[in-house]
Amino acid sequence: xxxxxxxGQGSQYCGMGRDIFEIFPAARVMMERANELLGYSITDIxxxxxxxxxxxxxxxxxxxxxxxxxxxxxxxxxxxxxTAGHSLGEYTALCFAGAISFDDAVRIVAKRGExxxxxxxxxxxxxxxxxxxxxxxxxGLLEEARSEGIVQAANFNxxxxxxxxxxxxxxxxxxxxxxxxxxRMAKELVVSGAFHSPxxxxxxxxxxxxxxxxxxxxxxxxxxxxxxxxxxxxxxEIHRNLILQLTSSVLWSQSxxxxxxxxxxxxxxxxxxxxxxxxxxxxxxGVATRGIDTxxxxxxxxxx
Length: 304
Hints:
By secondary structure, the protein is α/β, with parallel strands linked by helices. It is built from 14 helices and 10 strands. It has helices at residues 18-23, 25-38, 42-48, 51-54, 57-74, 89-96, 102-122, 138-145, 168-177, 201-212, 235-245, 252-261, 275-283, 295-303, and strands spanning 2-6, 80-85, 126-131, 151-158, 161-166, 185-188, 223-225, 230-232, 266-270, 288-292. Helix 8 packs across helix 9 (168-177) and helix 10 packs antiparallel against helix 11. The two termini are 15 Å apart.
């Protein structure tokens, strides 16, 4: 059984999606429609924008979504029985599964990016990657670091790879303490906010209002959602978990494990770069992975 998985923020690169736009008329129609809906040319930012511009959350999120959903639409396969996305990628998964229309997904992803960027400016925070630390040491690390403020696990990316998020002082303290807890590496990340932490609460509240303004349907195939790490099709549950996602941990490792237990044996990452493929192989070495990023990748998969 196969699953499509969709990447999140951090996978963007300059020139992303340009070959898909130029070669496939259906992708061009989708991308030009997104430009109309957004009121600016996201494709210009994707194709010829600077790295600094593309790194702005308000642009990063619609760019990655658009690249991913255009590729997925071109290679839609009947043997894909489940889907998931990492953080932002969850919206792509829901659009692919038919729970959210393309137009609504473009609008809500852009709104989410704007809200998260604004929340990061209003409530300054940071994030850090902790590599190689035993999971059993996490709570002790967080408890000590919380003497400096809010900090929590934002992403459980794979065994031994956790991303922390929260107040700057608290995250810095966690980074300093991590080696003593067994971490092989602890590094603060270059981000514009403390995503997936309580510092995103203002964004969560406004996103809830925005989500009330779009139609969310039951998903056509199960979507394994970040906040609960289980496959969901019910529209009300999807709505609830999208709101929770902004301030909750991304349970990616647990989600992949749940998908494998459900019978998934091959994961196809659809969108820019190969981040999720690497994580999935660290979670379960027994599954097959492949990636669809470029026009050449799409042609190769169509030929199978």
